[in-house]
Amino acid sequence: MASPPETTHPEPEPVLDTSGKDRAGEHNPDGDVTKSPLNNNSKMSQIPRTLLLATLYASISGLLFGYQMGVTGGALHSLQSSMELTSAQSESISSLFFIGLMIASPFGGYACDRLGRRSSMLYMDGLFLLAAFIMAVAPNYNTILAGRFIAGCASGISLIAAVSYLTELASAEHHNSHRGALVSTVEASVSLGFLISYLASYALTVNIYYEEAWRLLFGVGTGLLAFVQWAGMRKMPESPEWLAEQGFHDKAHAALRRITPRSYLDDDGSIAGRVAEVE
Fold it and tell me: Per the count of CB atoms within 10 A, which of 151, 203, 225, 233 is most buried?
């Protein structure tokens, strides 16, 4: 008598996690251990307070440039009526700024290499303050021309120094992902400078008519912006790359520590390696 056939039960198939999400410290279907992307990028997203302040103060160079270009249109009306200028003289006051800008800009790179990026902005703030004083107390037409020319020279070098400064700070090892955003603040500040100049001109020449409003627009407005940048940049670090190129390795190391996220401050080897790259 034949025995009944044996019945076989199929083995259960393994249940795969199809959620598509890998958990930190767990094996995925390929057998690799994966880490949470949040843990990898959390440190990279940190921007130190010093770097943010340096970006803010350096961007005032763009603000000054835009302000100087935009304020002329609002100030000329009161200037013409106050000093009885001709149309040709008014055009000369507008153009002297751009002549100074054109003459000084080619020397911006030399000044940055010679003096340092941060130091160049500080020296140009001094020129801005000088130009602001000259235009605020200008007794005649020729004095105004001198003040506008000095402001143009200062704008040309300060703008180059600001872009170089932020580019080198943002090129630090832990800020590459933020380089575009930090450097573009200078360009954005140029547009903001135009807006501030238009608002100030409207307030002093239309809303509140003041015959010598041009003294406030050319002098006080320029001087106030320059003083804010000078006071802020004095507390900021110099470019680590420039310091390392000049042989100031200890100062370069200290500057890098100031713009490095706190979570990386214990990694002295990484900071020292960054300084060695630019030696």
Answer: 151
Q: What are the φ/ψ torsions at residue 139 (nearest 5 degrees)?
A: -85, -20
Residue 178 and residue 52 in contact, taking contact as beta carbons nearer than 8 Å: no
With tokens 């200062």, the residue in question is 154
Under a CB-based contact definition with an 8 Å cutoff, are residues 221 and 255 in contact?
no
Helix (H, G, I), strand (E, B) or coil at 27: strand
- Helix locations, the chain, DSSP H: 37-42, 49-58, 60-83, 87-104, 108-115, 117-136, 141-170, 179-202, 213-215, 221-233, 240-245, 249-258, 268-277
Please identify every stretch of the chain with a pLDDT value under 50, giving residue numbers as ranges.
1, 9-10, 12-44, 269, 271
Task: Give the model confidence (pLDDT) of 99-133 as tens digits.
Answer: 999 999 999 999 999 999 999 999 999 999 999 99
CA dist 75 and 67 (Å) reads 12
Distance between CA 89 and CA 161 in Å, rounded?
32
> Which pLDDT belongs to residue 278?
52
- Can you tell me whether residue 219 is helix, strand or coil? helix
> Is the Cβ–Cβ distance between 66 and 55 less than 8 Å?
no
3-state secondary structure of 146: helix
- ∠ CA(137), CA(143), CA(145), 5° rounding? 125
